[in-house]
TrEMBL record:
One of its GO terms (molecular function) is cell adhesion molecule binding. This is Guanylate kinase-like domain-containing protein. PROSITE patterns: GUANYLATE_KINASE_2 (PS50052). The lineage of its organism: Eukaryota, Metazoa, Chordata, Craniata, Vertebrata. Residues 1-106 form the Guanylate kinase-like domain. It comes from the Eukaryota.
Length: 138
């Protein structure tokens, strides 16, 4: 984690690609305020055991507690669900979530987004500070 520059995200968008970011709810608010309107997909774990099984299979070198990660996901869902443009329920028994993720992104990018003609008053920084990892899966 660290600081991500909006300019860097813009360069990725200009190449007709999606920037995949693990950001805090505050960073999502800042992106919305800057009128970037990110696609925010929440991967909803099915259980503590499901988190442990998936992380063992997909990220075996990880040392983070499955219980803590599950609790963090629960708090994130409870307190910030209004920021999510899509939610994908994870099932540790299969990798169907990947297809659902691609479908959710495709669906979101094909929807119209209302934007104002002018920028909101106030200044927005060109940085997204990602140092606060309390609400991150990674």
């Amino acid at each position: 984690s660290g600081i991500i520059r909006l300019h860097t995200i813009k360069q990725i968008i200009d190449r007709d690609k999606h920037a995949l970011l693990d950001v805090t709810p505050n960073a999502v608010d800042r992106l919305n305020y800057a009128q970037w309107y990110p696609i925010v997909v929440f991967l909803n774990p099915d259980s503590k055991q499901g988190v442990k099984t998936m992380r063992t299979r997909l990220c075996p070198e990880s040392r983070k507690s499955a219980r803590k990660l599950y609790e963090r996901a629960y708090k994130l869902r409870k307190n910030n669900h209004h920021l999510f443009t899509a939610t994908i329920n994870l099932n540790f028994m299969n990798d169907g979530w990947y297809g659902a993720l691609k479908e959710a992104i495709q669906q979101q990018q094909n929807q119209l987004v209302w934007v104002s003609e002018g920028k909101a008053d106030g200044t927005t920084s060109d940085d997204l500070d990602l140092h606060d990892d309390r609400l991150s899966y990674l």
